[in-house]
Structure formats: C-alpha cells, structure tokens
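Today's session is about reading a structure prediction critically. Students often jump straight to the picture, but the first step is always the sequence itself: look for stretches that repeat, for charged clusters, for runs of hydrophobic residues. Only then move on to the predicted structure, which in these notes is written as discrete structure tokens rather than atom positions. Here is the chain we will use throughout the hour.
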Amino acid sequence: MDVQQAYAQWAEQYDTNLNKTRDLEAISLRKTLEHMNAVNCLEVGCGTGKNTQWLAGKTQHLTAVDLTEEMLEKAKEKVHAPHVAFVAADITQPWDFCTQTYDLVTFSLVLEHIEDIYTVFKKVALTTDPGALVYVGELHPFRQYGGSKARFETEAGTTVVTCFTHHFSEFTGAAAEAGFGIEAVNEFFDDDDRSKVPRILTFLFRKLL
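Below is the predicted structure for this chain, in token form.
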C-alpha cells in the first residue's frame, strides 16, 4: 500500500500494536546517540513521536518531519516543548522545510520506504555542515531478504506498506557519494540473542566535506 495512505491508517494503533521493530529501533537510537548533543537536529520520520521527546532533550532546536499528518498529530499530543517544530513533508520532494543547517540528522525506519536513497543523502549534505552526524536506523536487510516488511492488521486483513530493500553497500555508497564517512555501524537483536538474525541495522555517519 502507498506509504502515506498506510501510515494514515496505522497512526491510531501504531503505539499500541506489538511491534518489535519499532521498539528495538528506539533502543538503538538511544544507545547510538546517548553521549551526543546537538544545537540543531532534524528528525526525519518522527512518526508518533517515539524518539522525538528523547531527541528534544539532546538539542536546542529540533525539526521533526513526517509524511503523514495523522502520525504528526499523535506526536504533537506527546511533545509540547517550545523548541520542537513539527513539519509535514515528503522527503522525496525539495526540502523547503529546512530553514537552517543541522549538526544532527536522524532517520528512523524511513529509508526502507524510499527507493532512491542516494538523492536523500545528497539533500542531507546540502543541509549540514562539516562534522555533522547522521544516524540511520533501519530494519536489517537480512530480515528483508526473508520477506519481512512493515505491516499492520486491520479488520480487512493485513496491510503491507510499500518497502524497498537497501543493501549494506547501498547505505554506505550513498553516504560516501554525498561526502559522509562511517563513524559507527551496529546491529541489534531481539532479546540480545546474537544466535538469531539481527532485527535492526544502524549507521552513524559524519560529514567530511
């Protein structure tokens, strides 16, 4: 199903559904960024705000962007900090919502819904200064190879959201082409059981140029 339409439907139950991917990505973001602070942070794919309030405590200005108004409304119910601005925007279109440069940009379970991530990283490069950090937390491609996709249940049955598989080399290649180097890579496992297929893949990139 079309991403915007699907998340509009999912918004009402997104926070209450059993969702190991959502929950583990929230853990991965906090562990990756726990020792970092930012002046201006751009949160791409804030959804219902699962990471927004935590990020708000790490930055002086936070721009929280999502494709879907219904998801943003849920986030606004949770986060009332005056230094947080919520914006509805399609990141495949021009980034008119960027009014300054950012020293931290985060993507949480977003890039799986974007076919061309090379263009996205180029847009990130235009809105960041040298030294800026970019966090990416995604469903691990190993899971995607096995057919796992973002999905939720409705009275009409299972709704599967449009997703694209991005290989490890695609993430690193898109970042490198846009002038970012790898700061850290990590994998997160259900119940920290490393004998199983990892669920979340995270990257931390730093802008070099």
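Discussion point for the tutorial: The chain has one domain: 3-207.
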